[in-house]
Protein: DNA alkylation repair protein
Organism: Guopingia tenuis
Amino acid sequence: MASSTASVRETLFSLQDPAYQAFQSKLCPGVDNIIGVRMPALRPLARKLARESGLLYFQEGPEDYYEELLLKAMVLGYAKGSLADKLPHIAAFVPKITNWAVCDCFCGALKVTQEDPEAMLAFLRPYLSAPEEFSVRFAAVMLLEFYIDAAHISTTLSLLAAVTHPGYYAKMAVAWALSICYVKFPAETLPLLQEGQLDPFTHNKTIQKICESFRVAPQDKAMLRTLRRPLLSLKRK
């Protein structure tokens, strides 16, 4: 694995795009280890590592750079193995998430969720009340990715509405997820906004994101804007 590690890092630096590095650094405040490799270049490398090394790369691969952590997130998703096989590795990875980009990439790669949605849902529930901001975001984005459907919409709305973490990135994930809930299931989601079940920041961000959607009618957007509430600003860390 040592020689493979050196080869992977060498490959990453060969794919470096300084302009993208500067762009991505602005999107991820506080992340100072970005090489600058675009996702379309990272994904094929992650698939190759998943084929050749599988979960061994996830366990032993380096994570000194932002892109190395992204690779591990994607390798876990792409590697062969059941949900039961992967859950311990998912649990081990969640504490390593310290920015929204790694979080959202990781969630998107976990298609193994579809193998047993109820088992994954049981695994996710504790994270929604975790003290760590990105643990909460992880669970909220997983709900967004895999649980906004007819079978789960009631549960998803209930779980999202119950999130109380004060962190900016946790709240933004909840608002993003709820906006997709509204786009897909407006009748089920609207009462949550009408009844003021969310904190003002998340409430208003949800409405903002709904109104940014091209799939919502202008008259519905106008109605939703009347539901906005006064709030204090919430700054990112």
About this structure: The chain has two domains: 1-99, 116-237. The radius of gyration is 19 Å. The chain is about 65% helix and 0% strand.
